């Protein structure tokens, strides 16, 4: 059946908290499936873990589409991983997953690269000499170097001008994508071609980033050894050569450039913010930091560099990292999704749509007729008692063992789950344990006065500005 008029209400949420409260109230009144209007756009809301699981996992193929974003479509033209659909998306995603999982074919592993960067990060933090500092820049350089190492086999000095320019343009584009102006452009695509605005700067930054990737690709084409690939670009170029007689268009330089930029965007900004937010939470909840450091000393010691094998012996640290991701709710609105065909879901007919976005807070899935899906679950008070409190106990059982939760979908779920999930888990564990192994974190203000309320920037929730001291141990 179609959605009844009685289930339609007007709402213009101004931030994640208000949206969470609104959808929770509406779900209690109308059940787990209802229509919500964002301006003139009708949005179907699925509220609760069971409804979301049924949509994104049980009906994963039908709910696997990417929504229509005019600004991104203008520059990407359907290429890459994040904003593509159909055969190009499936083939590019499959190749990228395989390459990241089996990277180097016996060569230097990704874990080696992250460990090396963790050592570099520690050395940069030592240079602060225990003085108050804003960790934003340093915590951005580390994940950027990891991605550059995997894609280009480049490692930049933290003061390298190329690194600074790449990070600044990428960060600016993330901010622009989350701005009200870009939301307006999505609603009225005609504005893109005829009216000046922030989208012009987005296009300029994207062109510069893409130009750098194409330059590195040309260098790789000149030096390529098909029997000895060194990085992601080498692997892609080899695949291009293997598929050169195919009539399909998945393996092209254009798709390579957009795929690399997708890996950049997903792997740098989100990781930097999560690390920065994590240190703020550990400053606020000093007892958590102390327990993690006790576990580090007991399992790893003070001198051996942490490795991924350690994680299975460190349940409290593992729980702490999961709790950072749950508490911060980094990308509350996720990226817009779409159903790939007309579908009947729980007796409601949903026509093939262009957009549905994901909100990862109290487990709400939304999609709409033209339109959008949101997923809200990380603050479900039944799964995570007192969800507004930072507590690693949310991921520990009564015996202190790590407890997995089906509600933990920090990387989304289903067919569109983040390609870099494994790398992100590795970076968070190795970076945070290495920092806490070598330094005591000291706040410049009383921990009780630290504000951990997120500053929502359209796409991402960033921590408020703060400074801290890294005191060598």
Automatic annotation (TrEMBL):
Cofactors, names only: heme
E.C. number(s) listed in UniProt: 1.14.14.1
PROSITE patterns, sorted: CYTOCHROME_P450
Family annotation (InterPro entries): Cyt_P450, Cyt_P450_CS, Cyt_P450_E_grp-I, Cyt_P450_sf, Cytochrome_P450_fam2
Protein location: Endoplasmic reticulum membrane; Microsome membrane
The protein's enzyme class: oxidoreductase
Pfam families, per the entry: p450
Major subcellular location class: endoplasmic reticulum
Keywords noted in UniProt: Endoplasmic reticulum, Heme, Iron, Membrane, Metal-binding, Microsome, Monooxygenase, Oxidoreductase
Protein family according to the UniProt entry: Belongs to the cytochrome P450 family.
Protein name: unspecific monooxygenase
Lineage, opening ranks: Eukaryota, Metazoa, Chordata, Craniata, Vertebrata
